[in-house]
Description:
By secondary structure, the chain is of the alpha/beta class.
Amino acid sequence: MMSNLLSGQQIFAESVPKFVDTEWLAENIEKENIKIIDATIIFANPEGEFIESGYDLYLERHIPGAIFADLIAANVQDAPIPFTYPGEEQMKTFIASLGIQDSDYVVLYDSGPQYDVDFKADSWASRLAWQLEAAGLKQVSVLQGGINKWLEEERPVETGDNQPESAPELSLQEVADKFVDQSQVIEALEDDRYLIIDVLDEAQFSGEVAPFGEDRAGHIPGAKNIFYGSLTDESGDLLDESMLKERFDEIGALDEDKHVIVYCGFGVAASYVARAIESLGQDNVSVYDGSLQEWTENHDLPLEK
């Protein structure tokens, strides 16, 4: 009998894709080394909470076999910028706590970008995927459309909690360029080998809306703008590859000689767009971890409108 203990490289004839669809997951869900991770975060809910764990929602319904990963716990605690990447050692401990081993193939999903919006994006799952890859995991994909699409297709779910067994020590090597810091972005402003992309909506990009203060509205000088909520169809799947390529080609993001730096408010939506760019073959992509929240707090740094 053929074993169903398959690695991501065996499942896919070529490289592991950055995104998979619900049909693929439904067909492969019972393969033993596939780890399904629910990375749901509740963002800007009606009760006024800015950010909270999606654990309670996970308990109500999740994809069969899924383990909940608390993205808040996966980052620096009490940091001034939400979701600050904690570094290699903390990420290794976090990965092991999820029962993930080096050879596992990890599929992450979430429950949408934030409460009550009219667009779809796999932002939270993409942020955690970006961190897992930064820590050295190589077989990681994000489920397009997340659990919302899964439910719309009337696929099975389960309730309660799946407790993982802690994995043995991991032999991972951190990938240095997945994140850049403020000093690297400042250097990039004067270097035409870099392309900076702002993925917030046009109102924030133009300075019409100023979430970080009226005197600090706008975008990092020279940045191009592609709104992260404009990359999917109504189902939550990414747009057709040719359409995505056209969008990113227009701003030079697929130029193999460019190093692309992506930012948003605090590094979550940026991870989704960075992942989409990688899926089109661009290997030189980094996320500015502190993003616009950190940039606007330093009044010596310029902004454009």
